[in-house]
Amino acid sequence: MTKPGSHAEREGSQAELIRRSLKRRYRKERRFRLYGITAISIALFSLVILFTDIISKGYTGFIKTTVTLEVNLDGELMYLNDAADPEQIAMADFQAPIIKAMQEYFPEATSRADMRELSRMTGSYASNQVRDLLKENPDWLGTTRTIEFPAHDTVSVYVKHAGDAGYSIRLSEQQQRWTDELLRKGVIDTGFNDVFFTNGDSREPSNAGILGALIGSLLTMGITLVIAFPVGVAAAIYLEEFAPSNRLTDFIEVNINNLAAVPSIIFGLLGLAVFIGLFGMPRSVPVVGGLVLALMTLPTIIISSRAAIKSVPPSIREAAEGIGASKMQVVLHHVLPLAMPGMLTGSIIGMAQALGETAPLLLIGMVAFIVEIPDGFFSSATVLPVQIFIWAGSAEQGFVELASAGIMVLLAFLITMNAFAIWLRKRLERRW
Amino acid sequence: MQTADLLPLVLVLAAVAYGSAYMRSRAVAAPLGGIRNLKALPAYYAARAALWCAIPALIILGAWAAFEGKVIQNIVMASLPAELTPQSAGHASLTLSQISNLAAGKLNPAMVPDGISSAAVLLQELREQSSRFKSLLVVLIAVLGGTFAWTRVAPTINARKSVERTLQRLFFVCAAVAILTTIGIVFSVIFETVRFFGKVPMSEFLFGTNWSPQTALRADQVGSEGAFGVIPLFTGTLMISAIAMLIAVPVGLLSAVYLSEYASPRMRSVVKPLLEMLAGVPTVVYGFFAALTVAPFIRDLALMLGLEASSQSALAAGLVMGIMIIPFVSSLSDDVINAVPRSLRDGSLALGATQSETMKNVIFPAALPGIMGGILLAASRAIGETMIVVMAAGLAANLTANPLDSVTTVTVQIVTLLTGDQEFDSAKTLAAFALGMMLFIVTLLLNVIALKVVRKYREQYD
User: Fold this and answer.
1) Out of A65, A322, B249, B302, which could bridge A151 as a Cys pair, Cβ 3.0 to 4.6 Å?
2) A73: closest CA among A179, A155, A144, A166?
3) What is the interface pTM, i.e. ipTM, of the complex?
């Protein structure tokens, strides 16, 4: 208890008290605001870091390093006198002319060890490239041609990442000197990596591309779309328009809500046990992948389609019923067309999710190493995110930048799809 | 004909049925004085014919295609002579792939025993027969169905009613796919789990503290018994999820509060989509980020501080997972906060409380159940998240509380056990399904509780 002072004194101290407490409260208010801003900054900062990290790691994936050589396709050197004879082709030495062409620049490199190092300047598939060229054009035998080879992975790392702490240079000092020399002469050059967009996977980073995974993704998404969209829309129509309110309907709704939150890997187990185990479907094929992803996206599509149907005002239904339309006619002729933009938006967002999904596809075997570009729904394939996963786990240094570049391609697709969904919503959605 | 060719054929037949029934209905109506004397519009007669043509044929086609492979396999395996009959499941799948490679012409017949090559001939024959019968049956049923509906184009029959009834049933079947999926999930994990518990006792699975599922190839090898104790997996999963939640809950919640209470509409319209972008980034991208950027960074940082950190630390995976979950927490709490009635807020402000006091003392307690529900949903997502941990967390099942150590999770083990070569009934493969079952049950419980809490909370203010 404080000593009671005069009236004025008491009032003064009370005002002081309030003033002080107000100060404290405002300080708290400011601090609280600061917490909020900090939280948002952390989230946005993570986003920025994530994107810069991926772009800085991956832009070199779009650059290829090439070695352009004047190759004398000398038959004697290759032990080949008829390029049309498949038996001779199988036995011939196609590395020799490449080494010979390199020696034009470095005549001093004649020892065995030097020649081995020279041969490791061009990629491991360089001799195959010469073979295939000769197979196609047997009359090239004995002529001199300018051929562009992909550089060896180690050369490529040296050219692109010399001085980068994240990469180790695996070239010998002699090879580094050669590379510098050839770079100056323009024999080794960098350019846009078209191989990345025209090849399937490969053991060699310089030869690996994303086209196979891209086609695999398209095939898989095709199956997903064809199944998930009609089934999802039909289910949404049933639940919103026809379902009687009984236990069964409740059960269906509970199921849909739960499926939307089931971890995606569980759908992989379902695909493995049911589609592959029970039905005996082949592994690693787009059909099974598409089916699994369709089951996974179905809840998303149903939920967004229901929201779209709900947003159609009852007056539309009443007007149609008023002029004698049956329930089905009301739904199909009036409600469905009006709800379609919302349904499409939801489906595109669901498809974007499915496109980025990896875990269930690992379980149904879409993680295999596949070089060929898939040509149908039943041929072995992989998809974009799985290809990124495979590359990210590869030991070769060159695959990391390819994985990053693959992520950029994947993100470009996702952003396009989402932007399209937003545009569609803005463009077609009606406000009632 | 293959299934992929039959499908369009059936659709073409349905289109033909549609067209001919349409023409017939007009032809029937013409002598009566136009289509208004029919019970239904011509399009309905046509649609009915198309449905009659397509639906039974597609059902037969689907069923046949689903079970064809399995049935043929069993017949072929049963045809093998006694000495070639496989003893184990692994051997069986090997024999089977040998037979099918032989049938596809990828293998030289001279390289295998006679029994196998005659089985390959049988396989080829059965496949051809099956394909022939399938095509015949499907086309027959489609034509019969279409013809039947075509004959029943009559002015007294109300085709609209039957078409609408069929459509409604079709819609119901589509909705029931959700139930079928759940049943499929439950059954696909239950069977294998039961078989797993036949090999490994349940108590050992649930309470064992040692996880090393590497079963040996030969029975007499040292350490051939794998250990299937799930405790280290659970602690690993919990640790990574806990780290993720420690990041995601405060950041997500505070940004939701700021966005709904303080931010100007313009800031909101910029920041919200950016936050949602975090949710749209595929998990494999986060995994890449965690494994190749965050984990090495944390290891270097720990080294600088004189600590020992694994290159696959739980901290790295947890941190990145936390970033992934931020938008979940923030958008769920945003919904909940906005659902608190305006009157509560206005009342508090009118009494002179500052915005933060209103938030902390009025809105937050009112929104708490909803926020808890949102957090539970986010936790279930963290537990079930796969790619980040597969790429950034380790494989070794350590029972540790140190976030700088490498731990493994349930989902990582499912993926590791099921990718690569596997047999369908080794304890290793079955263990993956048992883990999947646990994961399913745990996330299901979390989701059910969360949905209940959120719904109850919504009802309170509606």
Assistant:
1) A65
2) A144
3) 0.89
Pairing of strands A188-192, A63-72: antiparallel
* Least confident segment among A85-89, A390-394, B224-228, B442-446: B224-228
- Nearest 5°: the CA angle A182, A187, A190 is 100
Contact A398, A323 (CB under 8 A): no
Comma-separated ranges of CATH 1.10.3720.10 domains in chain B: 227-461
CATH number for the B227-461 domain, one of 3.40.50.300, 1.10.3720.10, 3.40.50.880, 1.20.970.10?
Answer: 1.10.3720.10
Q: How far is CA A229 from CA A293, A334, A385, B266, in A?
A: 12, 19, 22, 35
Which pLDDT does position B425 carry in this prediction?
63
The rounded distance, in Å, linking the Cα atoms of B425 and B224 is: 16
- Reported as a pLDDT band with limits 50, 70 and 90, residue A87 is confident
Within 230-289 of A, beta carbons closer than 8 Å to B belong to: 230-232, 234-235, 237-239, 242-243, 251-252, 255-259, 261-270, 272-274, 277-281
Stretch B183-187: mean pLDDT: 92
Vertex B141 angle, CA B136 and B146, to 5°: 130
- B positions 372-411 inside 8 Å of A (CB): 377, 380-381, 383-387, 390-391, 411
Domain ranges of chain A: 60-193, 211-428
User: What whole-number distance in Å separates Cα of residue A133 and Cα of residue A254?
Assistant: 62
What architecture does CATH give domain A211-428?
Orthogonal Bundle (1.10)
Closest by CA to B286, choosing from B387, B207, B383, is B387
The mean pLDDT of chain B is 86
Listing DSSP states for B392-446 in one string gives: HS-SS------TTS----HHHHHHHHHSSS--TTSHHHHHHHHHHHHHHHHHHHH
In whole angstroms, what is the distance from residue A299 CA to residue A231 CA? Answer: 10
The answer to whether B432 faces chain A, any CB pair under 8 Å, is: yes
Check residue B112 and report its DSSP letter: S
Please check whether residue B347 is in contact with residue B341, taking contact to mean a CB–CB distance below 8 angstroms: no
CA of A73 vs chain B CAs: smallest distance (Å): 35
Would the pTM of this model clear 0.80, i.e. be above it?
A: yes
Q: What is the pLDDT of residues A33-73, one digit of tens each?
A: 999 999 999 999 999 999 999 999 888 889 888 888 888 88
Residue in this structure with the two tokens 């919990």, named with its chain if needed? B238
Distance, C-alpha A125 to centroid of its chain: 26
**pLDDT tens digits along B51-64:** 999 999 999 988 88
Predicted local confidence at residue A231, as pLDDT? 95
CB-based contact A237 B171, cutoff 8 Å: yes
Q: Tell whether the model's pLDDT for residue A369 goes beyond 50.
A: yes
| Helix ranges, B113-263 (H) | 114-151, 159-199, 202-207, 231-261
| A247-294 confidence digits (pLDDT tens) | 999 889 888 988 988 999 999 999 998 888 888 788 889 999 999 999
The residues with which B228 forms a beta bridge, in sequence order, are: B211
Tell me what the mean pLDDT of segment A77-95 comes to. Answer: 78
> How far is it, in rounded angstroms, from Cα A69 to Cα A100?
10
Q: Measured between alpha carbons, how far is A267 from A245 in angstroms, rounded to an integer?
A: 29
